Every structure is written in structure tokens, then in C-alpha cells.
Description:
mainly alpha
Amino acid sequence: MFLSHFFRFLRQWRAYGNSLQELSRLGDRELADIGISRSDIPRVAWESAERAS
């Protein structure tokens, strides 16, 4: 049980890092086009990682 939670967290963390990196590459105009601000990036990336797992 512990290992399955641990591996799930690792998958979420990897997905979070990927989303964070991709969103950080976008410019402010592109972020505004999709409806988020630069300060929203960590929250949006983590929500995306949680949905993916």
C-alpha cells in the first residue's frame, strides 16, 4: 500500500514538473490567452498532475 502511494506521488511529481516547465515557457500574452497568470502556473500544473494520475 505504501509503495503504491509512493509511486503514484512520483508520477504526479513528474507530471507536475513537466507541466510547470511547459507553462513557464509561455509568454505572458499566451498565458493570458488560456486564462491564467504567471502566478497561477504552480497551481494549474499541480491540478493537471492530479488529474493525470
